[in-house]
Amino acid sequence: MKAPAVVLLSGGLDSATALAIAKADGFTPYALSFRYGQRHAVELDAAREVAAAQGVTRHVIADIDLRVFGGSALTDDLDVPHHSNADDLGDGIPVTYVPARNTVFLSFALAWAETLGAADIFIGVNALDYSGYPDCRPEYIRAYEQMANLATKAGVEGRGLRIHTPLIDLTKAQIIRRGLDLGVDYSLTHSCYDPDAAGRACGTCDSCLIRRRGFAEAGMEDPA
């Protein structure tokens, strides 16, 4: 019997690829998404389609409301930055950073993993072609994994948890090629931070620009 693994699934390109890798690595995937008050909640429609297409065992969408804290262009009345090309993106932490988001998400994933008897969590964080978020770095993941193994019954009893970050040192183009090799249908995914009322990608936010550059460097058109 294949071991269960919780896979954080936003509906974007990276998380869809991480899900495919978890399956390829022999795990039975349980997908976890969040309705957290994000302005781009259309990504949850994409998450449902990706989960169905990849045949997850169960897909849970957890409701939390990070709008009560705000502090991000994704959860507050702040403008999402737009640029003409990816080279215009700055080196600082952008206003689209949601405070403690991955810590919150991983905590939910940790709780579900314990109830499933799972020792593995997959998250599609990336430390190369990304927007500069501090909770996408390898040192953060290592520290969280250490904390998780101190804070859980499974960890205390010697059944340690591992957080898998298969994309963390890949470029966006490398991620796309890896996903295509695994049969990921990127036309189902959604990456835009500032879609219009019909859910169409803006094409000029940080996430859209990084995605567009990735497909260009992979030598193909974005199917979405």
Question: What does this 3D model show about the protein?
Answer:
By secondary structure, this protein is α/β, with parallel strands linked by helices. It has one domain (4-217): HUPs (Rossmann fold, 3-Layer(aba) Sandwich), CATH 3.40.50.620. 36% of the residues lie in helices and 11% in strands. It has 7 helices and 5 strands, in the order βαβαβαβααβαα. The chain has a 5-stranded parallel beta sheet, sandwiched between helices. Helix 1 (13-24) crosses helix 6 and helix 6 (172-181) packs across helix 7. The longest helix has 16 residues, at 101-116.
- CATH fold call: Rossmann fold
Taken together, the total number of domains comes to: 1
CATH architecture: 3-Layer(aba) Sandwich
CA-CA gap between termini: 35 Å
Q: Which range best describes the helical content: under 10%, 10-25%, 25-40%, 40-55%, 55-70% or over 70%?
A: 25-40%
Secondary-structure element order, N to C: EHEHEHEHHEHH
| Number of E-type strands | 5
Biggest sheet details = 5 strands, parallel
Poorly predicted runs: none
Oligomer: single chain
Q: What is the CATH homologous superfamily assignment?
A: HUPs
Query: Which CATH C-level class is it?
Result: Alpha Beta
Radius of gyration: 17 Å
What form results from the Cα inertia axes? globular
Structural class: alpha/beta
Mean pLDDT over all positions? 93
Number of helices: 7
Spatial strand order of the main sheet: 3-2-1-4-5
Strand content: 5-15%
